[in-house]
Amino acid sequence: xxxxxxxIPNRPFAVxxxxxxxxxxxxxxxxxxxxxxxxxxxxxxxAPINNARVYIEGISDPGVVLIPEVKFVGNVPGGASFPxxxxxxxxxxxxxxxxxxxxxxxxxLTFKRVIKKIFIxxxxxxxxxxxYSVVMPQGTMRINIHRAVMGPRDNRCRKDxxxxxxxxxxxxxxxxxxxxxxxxxxxxxxxxxxxxALAILAALFALGALLYDYFxxxxxxxxxxxxxxxxxxxxxSVCCTSVSTxxxxxxxxxxxxxxxxxxxxxxxxxxxxxxxxxYRGQEATPPAxxxxxxxxxxxxxxxxxxxxxxxxNYPIEGSWEYTRTTTGNTYNFGTSDERNNIHFLNGxxxxxxxxxxxxxxxxxxxxxFQKPDGRFFKGNELYVSAVLVSTYGANRRFELNDxxxxxxxxxxxxxxxxxxxxxxxxxxxxxxxxxxxxGDWYLFVFAQDVNTxxxxxxxxxxxxxxxxxxxTPQLVLSFNxxxxxNHDAVIHxx
Amino acid sequence: xxxxxxxxxxxxxxxxxxxxVVPGNDPSGAPGIPIAGVAGYVWARVHNRGTTQVTxxxxxxxxxxxxxxxxxxxxxxxxxxxxxxxxxxxxxxxCLTQWTPVWVNDGHECLIAQAFHASDPLPPGGPNDPxxxxxxxxxxxxxxxxxxxxxxxxxxxxxxxxGNTARFRTEEVTVVARRAxxxxxxxxxxxxxxxxxxxEMGEINEFGLQPQRCGEQIERVGDEKLELxxxxxxxxxxxxxxxxxxxxxxxxxxxxxxxxxxRDKLVGGIGVLALGGTKDCEQYKQERSHENG
Lengths: 494, 293
What we know:
The complex is a heterodimer. Chain A is mainly β.
């Protein structure tokens, strides 16, 4: 009997449950606790896989607590790429690489085991020095935020918790373990860590209430935290004095997800995308023979010439100085850069009915996303999530896929479809408080790019690709005036 | 017959063919004997002999220092996996958490695997109750090591422990060593890391047991049967010593079984395959280590 022709070409990634959005570059974060492990499985055959089932056999890190589950996927067309997602707690995970073993089954086929790497990190905070640190097997990265543009939380300011955080001046120091000779040492995660550490940290700031013991020096005992007071100085300018939106969910998770994405994207735009400044600093400061590098540091100043709204090809300026400290000397290299955010779309369109009758089955939503070069994203190139926000504060989340199954007509045609079945009073879902009320519901469709680096790619090549960034421009940031949160459609539900 | 999970015992039961190790960093690599200091992966073969499909059955993997009586408290968890099985289906289940055998006893360790589900649970037992593979189809144990004759050194020594638990309700423990046909382990196949089973080595008259702490000098062979007095929870270190001929041929071997009895009931055992030839043990294991990356 032939085996299931399944493969998982890309690294499985982390999805934050309350926002249903992918973490920067798909990294799992210990501090975030429960996260979704999502993978795209490709049917490499020409024929359908009938009655496909998928489960996780095991995870190499025993600190990751998986909720075991078999996903019954249905009949998967030839060539289609379908998502599977599993819930797990990472609170006791060990930072580093972990392996996940997926079992893919189909009728009349022998099961297929696919083992993939995932990346796990943890962010600690040292109160006296206001230093964030990320400890990895290959070294420790310490980050000090000297200045940041911060905004209060809407009109519902709570406990001084910032609504948005955009670092403007920071220093990070990488302490390799052990010290290395030559121009550069081993890469953590097959993927230069500094590339995404800043993005992860910036993204986490907006998710403060999700995080466990941010300030605990790694001693996780499970409390929610706030990021206020963890920077040396906050910039007097204020970003987003309030938010202008028609749709606001009661817990603000839609906005939090978007602000998290904005922070991560802005730091990536200047520090990581394109010619990585850390890499350039290393190239420009070759140590003398026999010297070992003890630490590398980058002092970065970011000038947001325009508000860095996600999904927009905005310019961003930065000046930076790289310092290499070796066993025999100190080397410096500094310069200024102007970059552009490269994570944006040429355009996108969302198809949704103006009126939806709950008695006629699920609401169907489709979308297409055009790349800057005019081609359309397709298949597993994007992670597309949607949220419906009611006028009474409830939100309902679902995903759109281009897999030719369920509500999606054809695999890999560039049209992503998904839907939501509204819960009515007479439905047997068991919880009357979870009934969906008729009325206007606001639809947001978010697209994030997926890190498509194939496992085993040399680290330097892998470093050119970062995924998990928001491509759609619903959030419009402003300095000193209200930001805008724009929905993609309004659906009148009857 | 609802869900019925099995990990099969061997014959004798402590030589399960359903548990094996793949040394090295590739879990899909060739099986072999565990190598001290070399990380490897443990596998278990799980069967559902019931008539109902099982989803998300749990498979737990443990290692323990070589001992004939192993309890959850004396074993160390390696990792946990999950398996789904149709009625009558068998799957090989990988423990994705790597296991590195420690240097104690030259890497020889016992492996235990358990498969269970809420609808087919493990029998009740406390942390000090020994694993009971012969009476529990969910649990199996693999307890075998290779010893390789060194040229110019005609003593082969395998250290292990005998033990007692309160559940046995006695302090009288008997440990017996015996030679068994190599054919006994045919069903372990290539999981021993051998291309083929060796031919029977010639007659070996001198083998036996004696109290010993690993590393102590061995000066005699010992007795084939030991009567011990052990309090519940007590363990005692023993050594199996085999005197082989200096010119033992390569591709020959001799299987020895060391078994512990309580009131004539077999409660645990260890298999030791002594191999003839000119390679010494370190050389052999280094070769295996290189082969497995």
